[in-house]
Specification:
Elements lengths: L1 H22 L2 E9 L10 E5 L12 H9 L4 E5 L10 H12 L4 E4 L2 H6 L2 H10 L3 E2 L3 E4 L6 E5 L11 H11 L4 E5 L6 H7 L3 E4 L8 E2 L3 E2 L1 E2 L3 E2 L6 E5 L2 E5 L17 E9 L3
Parallel strand pairs: 1-16, 2-3, 3-4, 4-5, 7-8, 8-9, 9-15
Antiparallel strand pairs: 2-16, 6-7, 10-11, 12-13, 14-15
Length: 273
């Protein structure tokens, strides 16, 4: 009887731990300094949402929306996989996007899961109708002085005629003087972003390594394999930075361990690093 009780208590504790790990959102805040950031953007707050994968946090994602509102963002960037190819719910994704767009401007790029569905055009139309700026291999200036620009890169899954490196080099060549923000789903292309001249890149895809261990970090990430290099936080080189979100949802592997769902807040600061 005691043995069965111990097993029951252990199972309950394990279930509670997994529920907490997979349903309670955490926030990570990073300071991004760059002398190209105009003074009137000093203190600008960018909330990043990535890899939602059709996860639900409260009815109609009300808890997630409240978390975003609390951060008082200037803009929101969504870096792909807003849906999951195994349980696709376009209506839920569009509803969340519309709620987010009520807070502030939202900029979006697709991930590999959007491509796997084979119905990305439908989702894209719904997101645009929801008030989202969809950046499929295109860019927009977000200030009247044209000193800050956001460029979105189509996920490589779609196999565009122009690969990521070629497109980014051409895009950056159009205006290297402004502060160039890039949205792309894949962090493993860090060197490509740096080479192109992107000042600040936002990525997801790695799910934080899914399972994270102290002093080791993430254990596995798609397209990086075991002990991936880019899973969470800020990576910098030659004055350029990449922010990697651990994301919010799950896909093939159903659990996050020591890796709670995350929204990322990047605060821009004008000046040298």
């Amino acid at each position: 009887m005691k043995r069965h009780l111990k097993k029951l208590c252990f199972a309950a504790a394990a279930a509670s731990f997994l529920y907490w790990q997979n349903n309670f959102i955490t926030e990570s805040t990073y300071i991004i300094k760059n002398e190209k950031i105009p003074s009137y953007f000093d203190g600008m707050r960018i909330v990043q949402i990535s890899d939602l994968q059709d996860a639900v946090f409260g009815k109609n994602n009300s808890r997630l929306i409240k978390k975003i509102e609390k951060q008082k963002p200037s803009i929101i960037v969504i870096t792909g996989d807003i849906i999951d190819c195994h349980r696709t719910d376009f209506l839920a994704a569009a509803r969340f996007a519309a709620e987010a767009a009520e807070i502030c401007p939202v900029y979006y790029v697709c991930g590999n899961h959007e491509g796997v569905t084979g119905k990305y055009d439908t989702l894209k139309k719904m997101l645009i109708s929801a008030g989202v700026e969809v950046l499929d291999n295109r860019w927009v200036y977000i200030d009247s002085e044209k000193k800050v620009r956001i460029t979105g890169v189509v996920d490589p899954y779609f196999k565009p005629k122009e690969d990521v490196g070629e497109f980014l080099e051409r895009a950056m060549e159009q205006d290297r003087e402004c502060f160039n923000i890039v949205l792309c789903h894949r962090p493993e292309l860090f060197e490509t972003y740096i080479k192109s001249g992107a000042d600040l890149t936002f990525c997801g895809h790695a799910h934080g390594g899914q399972i994270r261990l102290p002093f080791i970090g993430g254990l596995f990430a798609p397209h990086q394999g075991l002990f991936p290099k880019y899973t969470s936080g800020v990576y910098s080189k030659n004055g350029k930075s990449m922010v990697v979100s651990r994301g919010l949802g799950n896909s093939t592997f159903p659990f996050r361990i020591f890796n709670r769902p995350e929204i990322v807040v990047s605060v821009l600061k004008s000046g040298r690093e």
